[in-house]
Specification:
five-stranded mixed sheet; four-stranded parallel sheet; binds iron/sulfur cluster; alpha/beta; binds flavin mononucleotide; globular; 20 helices; about 45% helix; about 10% strand
């Protein structure tokens, strides 16, 4: 039976999403009425080191995919080094299925701006950048409008609120490349170069933007900072699990009745999320799903009671990633879905390293052959062998991530591959698409 609105509300923990339903919350006047910039006033009265400590105590982990502890990252920035420090906010959001940062920037842009000012103050940065995905023109426009309002109100610029702290904030639009979400490629792109990953070490904490100490954080990470500063680390830790604290925005898409953003305490299960989203669509049964975008290994209906926190998802053999939960049913084909994702990785591969550039290209050819009904049993070994040469041997996480759907779909759904190879299902691609493949 469908949950009532009251039952749904009881399961949600709206923190980052709490202003999304208020009309015009993106305007400064409305934002200020809803606690806006109170955390900034509190933060500027504190010592920067104390702010870093609060974020460390809260256990806040990065929302960009890797889940790295935010306070620890801030603490890596060397102090009294005489170099400029930079804060760079990653608003590239390109991972397939991921769609939590864009609504945040359009509905509540001041939350991100306020978080950016506090974070910059904590790491002693006087320049902050928000790198927005090129296609997200609407989000960049909202942010620019909000930034102009915040600047005019004295929330950033020179001598912020009379504290003597100066900060310039730049909203930078990229050109729309998935690889520019990888933090070092993003920094190259921001510097005006072609966006390709840099060799690490050195890490951005010491050699980031313009080779200076830099913190790169996701939109959701930085927008979490004002509520933590206002309500405290213990409040944040009262949500979620011991090692995965706080609320998380789960982005649900696919074969459910009400796709969208559901902000819940970390550790909720897919079964509960599907219930919140109005259940599976009529005639559809859960077959496979991604816990955190297409770069995270697929899980199956067997896994719908796994708590969706960093540790439990890893123990189940996948990755929490960006909590982009894409839900597929018995009417969807895991072979075809994997092929479509691989086409994306092939297209977005920056070409810097051979395993990813060549491997993804060739895997797409193999998938086309299989889906055109011309595959062989040996093709399955070729796919796994190619993955073996990409995973752990690529220059950045794009290559590794591309192997996730391939390996996991072969692990759980080998029969679906064999159906094409042994002629039990009709081909999904025709010869023309096979010949036209390049
Ligand atoms: C191919 C690739 C794409 C990525 N895209 C994004 C992105 O769009 N947004 C993001 O925040 N992090 C992305 N990341 C992760 C970043 O490299 C980095 O870990 C993150 O911005 C750090 O922020 P956080 O600690 O707040 O999560 C990507 C990583 C890879 C390998
Ligand atoms: S793994 Fe792919 S995206 Fe990353 S550096 Fe290599 S070619 Fe570029």
């Amino acid at each position: 039976m469908a949950l009532s609105v009251k039952e749904i509300a009881a399961k949600l923990t709206p923190v980052l999403t709490r202003r999304w339903t208020t009309s015009d919350a993106w305007r400064l006047e409305v934002y200020e009425r809803l606690d806006g910039y109170r955390a900034l006033r509190k933060a500027l009265a504190a010592h920067p080191d104390d702010l870093i400590q609060v974020i460390k105590d809260s256990g806040l982990r990065g929302r960009g995919g890797a889940g790295f502890p935010a306070g620890m990252k801030w603490g890596f920035i060397p102090q009294n080094d005489g170099k400029p420090h930079y804060l760079v906010i990653n608003a590239d959001e390109g991972e397939p299925g991921t769609c939590k940062d864009l609504p945040l920037m359009t509905h509540d842009p001041h939350a991100l701006i306020e978080g950016a000012i506090i974070a910059a103050y904590a790491i002693r940065a006087h320049r902050a950048f928000i790198y927005v995905r090129g296609e997200a023109v609407h989000a960049a426009r909202r942010l620019r409008y909000a930034a102009a309002e915040a600047h005019a109100a004295g929330y950033f610029g020179r001598d912020i609120l009379g504290t003597g702290f100066d900060l310039e904030l730049v909203i930078h639009s990229g050109a729309g490349a998935y690889i520019c979400g990888e933090e070092t490629a993003l920094l190259d792109s921001l510097e005006g170069f072609r966006g390709q990953p840099r060799l690490r070490p050195p890490f951005p904490a010491t050699h980031g933007l313009y080779s200076c100490p830099t913190v790169v954080n996701n939109v959701g990470t930085i927008a979490s900072v004002p509520p933590i500063v206002l309500a405290g680390a213990d409040w944040w830790k009262s949500m979620g699990t011991e090692k995965s604290s706080g609320p998380m925005i789960y982005s649900l898409s696919g074969r459910i009745n009400n796709p969208g953003q559901y902000e819940c305490s970390m550790g909720i299960t897919l079964r509960e999320l599907i219930e919140l989203a109005g259940g599976m669509q009529d005639g559809h049964q859960l077959k496979f799903w991604t816990p955190g975008g297409s770069s995270t290994p697929l899980l199956t209906a067997e896994h719908q009671d796994v708590p969706l926190d960093f540790e439990s998802v890893a123990a189940a053999g996948s990755v929490l990633g960006t909590t982009a939960t894409q839900i597929f049913s018995n009417k969807d084909c895991p072979v075809y879905a994997t092929y479509r994702w691989l086409e994306f990785y092939q297209h977005e591969s920056c070409g810097k390293c051979t395993p990813c550039r060549e491997g993804n290209y060739w895997m797409v050819q193999v998938y086309r052959r299989i889906l055109a009904g011309e595959g062989t049993h040996a093709d399955l070994d070729t796919l796994l062998d190619t993955c073996d040469n990409i995973l752990g041997r690529s220059f950045c996480g794009l290559g590794d991530g591309a192997t996730s759907p391939v390996i996991s779909s072969l692990k759980f759904f080998k029969e679906d591959y064999l159906d094409y190879i042994e002629g039990r299902v009709a081909p999904k691609l025709n010869n023309r698409q096979l010949v036209g493949a390049h």
